[in-house]
Amino acid sequence: MTDRLANILTLIAISVPEFFVAYILIIIFAIQLAWFPSLATVDSDMGLGTRFYVAFLPALTLTMVVMAHMLRMTRNSVLSIMSTAYIEMAFLKGLTRSRVVAWHALPNALAHRLGGGAQSGLSRRRRRRGRERVRLSGVGQYMVDAVAKRDVPVIQACGLVFAGVFVTLNTLADICAMLANPRLRRRR
User: Fold this and answer.
1) How many other CB atoms are there within 10 angstroms of residue 116's CB atom?
2) Over the chain, what is the mean pLDDT?
């Protein structure tokens, strides 16, 4: 029952466009409850806490869409792991289904998701940038401008920064995968 409900909710969350989810969140949290502002305008003179407060609803909207994709992929990983021999052995030992999923299948599924999560999130962000335009310029815009001006040292520096961030995120994903899956911590 929980699996079916989660599957239906994630399918709905994936099917509904992001702007519609944002409108619903604005109606609930900004208009009816008046907890957050309906417009996220971040100024340079705002403090860090105020910036987080103002950007909460847009961040929640994007997080809900990404989490729906991640939940569906994690569910598929768990279902594929459930047909393996060690899961069958756990059932033969008399463990309950919830314990088998929580202690045996989910850590292995998370290890697969953590390894590929950084790349899939980056590619999804790249697709989304084609539709949206952010007013604040960052390193990406700086690199695009450098390419237009043919400023090779800046392009190399930006490439080095992007590569460093990519390697750092993948290293953190591997560490999280090792923490989530005890089999990866043992030497072979």
Assistant:
1) 12
2) 78
End-to-end Cα distance, the chain: 39
**Which tokens belong to 130?**
């084609």
**The predicted structure's pLDDT at residue 115:** 55
- To which residue do tokens 């962000």 refer? 125
Closest C-alpha among 55, 63, 71, 72 to residue 21: 63
- For 39, phi then psi, to 5°, come to -120, 125
- Rounded to whole angstroms, the Cα distance separating 132 from 174 reads 31
What would the two tokens of residue 49 be?
């806490």
Q: Tell me how far apart the alpha carbons of residues 36 and 55 are, in angstroms, rounded to a whole number.
A: 9
Task: Determine the Cα–Cα distance for residues 163 and 141; give it in Å rounded to an integer.
Answer: 16
CA 2 to chain centre: 22
Within 10 Å of residue 61's Cβ, how many Cβ atoms?
Answer: 19
Burial class (CB in 10 A: 0-12, 13-18, 19+), 123: exposed
Structure tokens at 154: 């800046």
What is the reported pTM? 0.51
pLDDT digits (tens, 9 = 90+) for 120-144: 444 444 444 444 444 546 777 788 8
Q: How far apart are CA 65 and CA 58, in angstroms?
A: 11
From the number of C-beta atoms within 10 Å of its C-beta (0-12, 13-18, 19+), residue 114 rates as buried
